[in-house]
Amino acid sequence: MKTKLDIAKNWLPRYTGTPIDNFGDYILITNFPNYVTTFAERFHCDVQGVGRPMQTATNAAGLSIINYGMGSPNAATIMDLLTARQPKGVLFLGKCGGLKHSTEIGHFILPIAAIRGEGTSDDYFPQEVPALPSFKLHKFVSDKIVEHGLEYRTGVVYTTNRRVWEWDEKFKTYLTSLSAIAIDMETATVFIVGHANEIARGALLLVSDMPLTPEGIKTEASDQQVTRRYTDLHLQIGIEAMSNLEQKGEPIKHFRY
Predict the structure, then answer these.
(1) Would you say residue 257 has pLDDT above 50?
(2) I need a labelling partner for 18 at 20 to 30 A (CA). Which of 7, 81, 167, 249 fits?
């Protein structure tokens, strides 16, 4: 295997247990296995890759979902491996911590950009290159949120590789100085690696906690409550947006510079 494409064609089935041709043109990626099982139950399709690092499902209409794990290295891995399929659009369904009073648990965020604090994306572009979504893909997601009669927030998300930082007052002060609306572990990586691989990409984030205060830090109990109340809707909006994009067949161009 001499090229990146050679590796991706071998490793995508290896990591997912799914043949390349079984993936659809439009793909949802997430880091929650219950999103994949819920998707499979809803569309009466099989979950592939059980026992592998990543699990997938694809419905009869050709929409796929992948659970890639957690963290920016795994997000970069799946966005690299998807070059073997060259999907027309990828939407990340993730959770995030709200950093502003204007965000509450259960709110949706469509990030206009992400701050590259995770380090992984530095292997793809210099720090000066912004991590941005594909605007047209986000427009379809925005339309679906509005159709459900819901509000959403926009803003800049800070992406970090640190998982346990909520105790660190110095880091929290730094976050406040950035004026970011939320914090997560993958969005900037998805945007940058998608850009590097010429894959149209977006992110719909669900605010699952408010970690700047001790009482707002996520616990097992609070996460279970968020899962029960909001994740079905989160997944549904993602499904509707990507399905609508596929039905209309509108290209999301990737411009070369």
Answers:
(1) no
(2) 249
